[in-house]
Design goal:
Blueprint lengths: L2 H50 E2 L2 E2 L2 H7 L2 H33 L3 H13 L5 H12 L4 H9 L12 H24 L4 H9 L4 H29 L3 H6 L7 H11 L3 H30 L4
Antiparallel strand pairs: 1-2
């Protein structure tokens, strides 16, 4: 056999299917691509067009009106405040729970992880209304505290910031626990054993050895929670009782109540741009957590 042909043969064999790959996959990917363009990219372009439309022309009038509207600025500030508080609660409690799960036996750990995963099977609407049963004035918590004599009157857990934060944190918690747990079980136990052999206390081992190795996963998970919190609608509407307005609730008002579609589109674009910026940061943190970047 000719040596030149044998040398070029594998290379040609490797490149020939690759050049035909996209053509062979087009009949399968094509319908999905059309669906994405028509069902996702098309509406976004329509929203962009609405956001710049004003009296038959294109301008930044809608964005200027939003910037000059005190209510919009208050809603934006309230959204970020609720998001930060919810993320802090989820990060602290989620980290503690994930760390606790790693300390369990294998059988108990599997049971607890199954309970965490089961929450994804329950509707967000059902889980949100369940908190009314638990935290309402005649709910389980208030009735228990009244029966124990700890309080004289029901505590207002609902229809305020506290109720919204509790409901949102409950929904977001599994999204932080699962990736954190996956990162924690990958921590090399030899590092912890080496620190212990050098005389380090358990607290020192945790803060100086274990915790730094889980920071990338924690940071990427926190960013994901922030992104999702910005678009919450059902939980603030139900547990906030209309007293805790967020951006998604403001969009509902501009679309269904007023309506001002051009302002709703401008709000949507602002939220989309901010979310895309956060998503880029999340992707970088996710690569950092997976070790793809130094």
């Amino acid at each position: 056999m000719d040596r030149g042909a044998s040398t070029l043969g594998p290379r040609a064999a490797g490149t020939q299917p690759r050049s035909r790959g996209w053509k062979a996959a087009l009949p399968f990917v094509g319908p999905l691509l059309v669906l994405v363009v028509l069902g996702f990219n098309g509406p976004i372009l329509l929203i962009v067009n609405y956001s710049f439309s004003a009296a038959g022309t294109y301008s930044f009038v809608n964005y200027q009106e939003l910037a000059a509207t005190p209510v919009f600025l208050r809603v934006i500030g309230n959204t970020f405040r609720i998001t930060v508080l919810t993320t802090f609660v989820v990060a602290v409690l989620g980290y503690i729970l994930a760390y606790w799960i790693t300390s369990l036996s294998e059988r108990t750990r599997n049971i607890v992880l199954a309970l965490v995963v089961v929450t994804f099977w329950v509707s967000v609407l059902v889980r949100t209304y369940a908190w009314i049963v638990v935290l309402g004035n005649a709910g389980l918590v208030n009735r228990t505290l009244l029966w124990a004599g700890a309080i004289d009157a029901p505590i207002a857990f609902l229809y305020n910031d506290l109720g919204v934060i509790i409901g949102m944190a409950n929904i977001q918690m599994p999204l932080l626990i699962l990736p954190l747990y996956a990162a924690m079980i990958k921590v090399d136990q030899r590092h912890l054993q080496a620190a212990a052999s050098l005389g380090a206390s358990e607290r020192t081992i945790f803060w100086r050895v274990f915790f730094p190795q889980t920071i990338p996963a924690l940071a990427s998970s926190v960013m994901l929670v922030v992104i999702l919190c910005l678009g919450f609608y059902v939980t603030p509407a139900i547990l906030g009782g209309g007293r805790v307005p967020m951006v998604a609730n403001m969009l509902d008002t501009y679309i269904n109540s007023i309506p001002r579609w051009e302002l709703a589109s401008a709000v949507s674009i602002v939220l989309l741009l901010f979310t895309l910026a956060l998503f880029m940061i999340y992707r970088r943190l996710d690569k950092w957590a997976s070790g793809e970047e130094a």
